[in-house]
Amino acid sequence: MVRALGLAQLTMIGVGAIIGAGIFSLAGAVARDTAGPAVLISFLIAGIASLFAAFAYAEFAGMVPRAGSSYTYCAAVLGEVVGWIVGWDLLLEYTAIVAAVAIGMSGYVGFLLDSFGIRIPAWALGAPGTGTGHRVDLVAVLICLAVAWLLTRGTRASARVETVLTAVKIAIVLVIVIVGFTKVDMANLHPFAPFGVSGAFAGASTVFFAVFGYDALSTAAEESVDAQRQLPKAMLLALGISMTLYVLATIVLTGIQRYTDINAASGFSSAFATVGLNGLANVIAVGAVIGITTVTFSFMMGASRIGYALSRDGLLPKGFSRLHPRRKIPARATWTIGVVSAAVAGVFPIGEVAELINIGVLMAFVLVSGAVVVLRRTKPDLKRTFRCPAVPVIPIISILFSVWLMVYLDWQTWVRMGAWLVIGLIMYTTYGYRNSRRINPGGSVEWEKETV
Hints:
By secondary structure, the chain is mainly α. It is 69% helix and 0% strand. Helix 1 (7-18) crosses helix 7 (155-181) and helix 5 (80-115) runs antiparallel to helix 12. It starts with 6 loop residues before the first helix and ends in a 17-residue tail after the last helix.
């Protein structure tokens, strides 16, 4: 692959992955139905849990600058079977995230078009069961396919587009915060936790997928300049920038409009429209569309690179690791993710997709955090350009946080994840085990030791 991504672009990819549907759509839905104004606490809990895991990811990114993220880390430390389980899990999660954030865009597109007197036919407004006459979410389908096309243009070209769009998105979020604070009515923030403390915790388990975009960032290791040093910095910078904006924006959302009146599909645009700022509401809708597009970009890129890594190691058919002869990107893997995510986005509601995402990501966090502890004991002399602080305390806290958030997910989500993992194990025993290059602990990574 072509190493074309520096610290600024990597950070932008990370911010692009984190800030999107979580702030523009999911925050409104969780505030209205689950947490009330305490959605602020939901994001803080999710952010703290994500930060502890980020330290573990950053340590691995400094040691293992290879495509594949959690899959590569766990395969290198815990072995081929665990690596496959994580990789198979993340293929589902990343593809589902692409679908979920594309679904989240539809409400803002509808708001924007309505303001210009343009109405999308009812059959194309959403998945079956999400509204009267809904048959397919056509906007979400088209977004998934368009992003797949953009990613196949090459890493350098698509990263430039991502950087520009992310900068525009951050600017719009800053406008939301600055203007929004002038319209906040403190009375709307009372009661702060109408659903109780458990509502805030349940909200954290729902919004979690909105605060871990650095995982997708780490999949671009083989396209990064000086990945061992720049990836850890980019991960922590992206999370810090995004969490600051999340906290400020949730205060604005629940302060401008009472939580019971929030429009879950187009939260910020609808809220600003209620206080007479219709022009700004339209600008926010445009920003939401841009913001969600950058998330789809980051996670579709991540999913295709995980598929590439699995295929390169023999766990998936070789076609998925075949690079475009000129652009040097895994085009077949990218288009596969694009088509599958478009199908999911077209026919499934966002709530079901979001919970399935979260359980898989939390499971990956548990394994990566555990792997850091194992590797500190088995290979203490490895070169680490970034060291997770307070090992094993921080990784253990990350594991406990992740398990705690998983407990708040519906039992149906556990059943769906279990079914997906069973399918994955069947695929491994019938194909992957016989065709892999036998990764084994440490076998797929050339470890670099500290020099004295």
